[in-house]
Design brief:
Elements (H helix, E strand, L loop, with lengths): L11 E5 L27 H13 L4 E5 L9 H9 L6 E6 L4 H11 L3 E5 L5 H8 L4 H13 L5 E6 L9 H10 L3 E5 L18 H9 L4 E4 L8 E5 L5 E5 L12 E4 L4 E3 L8 E2 L1 H5 L4 H12 L19 H4 L2
Parallel strand pairs: 1-2, 1-10, 2-3, 3-4, 4-5, 5-6, 6-9
Antiparallel strand pairs: 7-8, 8-9, 10-11, 11-12
Helix pairs in contact: 2-3, 3-5
Bound molecules: S-adenosylmethionine.
Length: 324
């Protein structure tokens, strides 16, 4: 079992399979951003080997993210290979949903169990303004298809930003009431190249919850996936609401994950700048045992917790590299 110095069991890895993205979300990237050269991105063989070694250490849960994971060709192949690794029980995907509908059947057949689709506006024009692409209808279609295909749960990741989309909080709550989806409100974190992030733009989970309670009755509910979200059922609703509060509260004691960046580095803590290059080991023909020891030692560097709220600082890397 992989454990850190604070007795947290690490059984979950989030993998950024590419830094590329088909959207240009204003709060995440600049209009033009440089891509990592192709040969610096981990190959599928390297990712599969990494997962196999981690599975041997007790990791059972994988999430593919990016960049936009579906902007990379062959994700169904990658999922099928990962699903076949002994010990891997759960494979999820975080996607903007634009290409999801057309690949859904293949992804599901390959072994995809769960999907998180990012959506920051329910208004078609605003969606185009935020993302730079007129693809709202595709994303909505992907959400409907995912529910219909029985992916469970279908989660919608929504980043609420002051003066940007906070007027839509109740609309998202209504969606959770009327559809079998889980809306997960995520606090605006100090990442991004766009210059948009500022602490004054954060709306905390508590503020969002308070606004929702003005119209909807929320009942505290458990989180079957042990994740960091604080979950609620909506009275007489089909879906659920979750709050992820990486900024306003410490969920570090529940942290069960590490990240693998698109460049092939292990990132023990989302908010730390420390990264440990495992790609170099693959490419210098390290043995499985050497890589396994490297992973064990890297996990031991996981900090107990991120910095205090008052010390929030801009993180160096963009989420598209780290894997949001
Ligand atoms: N392209 C995929 C997607 O859109 O879901 C995966 C990568 S994207 C970086 C993952 C998630 O990170 C998205 O839900 C996005 O909204 C979120 N994100 C990006 N920048 C963020 C920030 N500064 N604070 C909070 N969430 C952010």
């Amino acid at each position: 079992m992989l454990t850190d110095r604070f007795n947290r069991i690490i059984d979950y890895i989030r993998i950024s399979v590419t830094d590329r993205c088909n959207l240009r979300c204003k709060y995440c990237v600049e209009d033009q951003f440089p891509f990592i050269p192709h040969d610096e991105i981990l190959t599928y063989e390297e990712i599969i080997r990494f997962v196999r070694i981690c599975a041997g250490l007790g990791v059972s849960k994988i999430r593919l993210t990016g960049g936009e994971p579906l902007a990379r060709k062959g994700i169904p192949f990658l999922i099928r290979e990962i699903a076949a690794i002994e010990g891997i029980r759960d494979i999820g995907l975080t996607t903007n949903g634009v290409y999801l509908g057309r690949q859904l059947a293949d992804l599901k057949a390959a072994g995809l169990k769960r999907v998180n689709i990012s959506l920051d506006s329910l208004k078609k024009e605003r969606f185009a303004y935020i993302t730079g692409v007129d693809a709202f209808d595709e994303v909505l279609r992907s959400i409907k298809m995912s529910v219909h295909a029985g992916l469970d749960p279908v989660k919608i990741n929504t980043v609420i930003i002051q003066g940007f989309n906070d007027d839509e909080i109740l609309d998202f709550a209504k969606l959770a009431k009327t559809r079998n989806v889980e809306i997960r409100f995520i606090e605006f974190m100090p990442f991004g190249d766009s210059g948009l992030w500022h602490s004054s733009r954060i709306i905390t989970s508590q503020e969002i919850e308070d606004r929702i309670r003005t119209l909807y009755e929320l009942e505290s509910s458990s989180n079957p996936h042990k994740g960091p979200a604080k979950m609620f059922d909506i009275k007489e609703g089909l879906g659920r609401i979750g709050f992820i509060s990486p900024v306003s509260s410490h969920i570090c004691h529940e942290c069960n994950r590490i990240r693998l960046t698109s460049r092939g580095a292990i990132k023990p803590c989302l908010f730390g700048d420390e990264e440990y290059d495992v790609k170099k080991m693959f490419r210098e023909n390290a043995t499985d045992e050497e890589i396994s020891n490297f992973i064990i030692n890297t996990v031991k560097t996981k900090p107990e917790r991120k910095a205090e709220m008052g010390q929030i600082r801009k993180c160096q890397r963009n989420l598209r590299h780290i894997g949001g």
